[in-house]
Amino acid sequence: MSRAFVKEDDGVDGEMLPDRPISPHRNFVTAEGLAAIDATLIELAATLASTSAEDRPTRARLERELRYWRQRRATAEPSAAPPDNAVVRFGSTVTIERDDGREQTFRIVGEDEADPAKGALSYVSPLARALSGKSVGDVVEVAGGDVEIIAIR
Known about the structure:
alpha/beta; 2 domains; 5-stranded mixed beta sheet; 7 strands; Chitinase A, domain 3; two-stranded parallel ribbon; single chain
């Protein structure tokens, strides 16, 4: 049979796109992170429903995103706010002072919530790992410099 009469998808025209990589780390999320995942799922499903069947590249992209976020939702492990501020842990907001005098404040959150520019640091990041379990006054070395914990809330 001639290939001219066989319809094939080429990936660009709508074939199922490869899945986004899923982190090997546990999927801890804050309450806000879980709500954001749920909102993303609703938004993606609505967008997919309103996308024309002929717009196969967009549909393929949306379906891939839905697969990713459904997996992240299925594996989400909501974590309650820390019971106290004695040590840095998941969900803590910590203020550090770098050895050059700069102060920075970060909240330790799940990987999908992380946005360092907005003060949200993934719990698996090197800085968050270095700070975890430490108290106010502790100094840790990160990326060749020292940081001191000056507040935990």
